[in-house]
Design a protein that fits this description.
The chain contains 9 helices and no strands. It is mainly alpha-helical and 223 residues long. It is elongated and about 55 Å long. It starts with a helix and ends with a helix.
Amino acid sequence: MANQDDSFIREVNEELRSEQVKAVWTRFGSVIIGLAILIVVGTIGKVGYEYWHETSASASGDEFLAALTLSRDNKTDEALTALATLEKDGYGAYPVLAKMRAATLQAQKGDTAGAVKVFSDISKDASLPQAMRDAARMRAAYLLVDTGTYEQVSAEAEQLAVPANGMRHSAREALGLAAYKAGDMAKAKTWFQQITDDAETPRNLANRAQMLLDLITASGKAS
């Protein structure tokens, strides 16, 4: 008798659970389905975006390397065409890298002023990472060492020549070279001395600075 009672109770409980499930499904079934669809769609979208991101970056990287190869092979015009396409249609940082490389080729072809303007414009673009902006500013400064005044080089490089900046060594060198070229040996000596006094200066750069310091000292024009 007890077994029959237990069996009856189980059947009643199962029936109640079944009715509860039906009630819940009737009330919330469309919501549950909707949430399931959203999860599936969201997963597909995430996977699709990651695939698109990886393939787009990879394709742009391949195009950039191909343009660099053209440049190394002295196919400057073809390289500039490839870089212009990448600048327009590239993904991620590659359009800016293409623009910077194209500016370098522009300078090599003799249009230094145009190249300096490109680098200067990039350095002022607040939407870009600071490291990229600093690199463009530094490139403009080095080009101006040969073609500009000390003041022009200083406008690009001096803000980078501070202790906390990772490009301070190159910035100081550009400023020292510009001062040396301008005949201001005292100022050149100051910048080169900062390079040699900085324990974190790369050795090859420190050696160049020391060589110029020796030349300045030997000239007797730094006093």
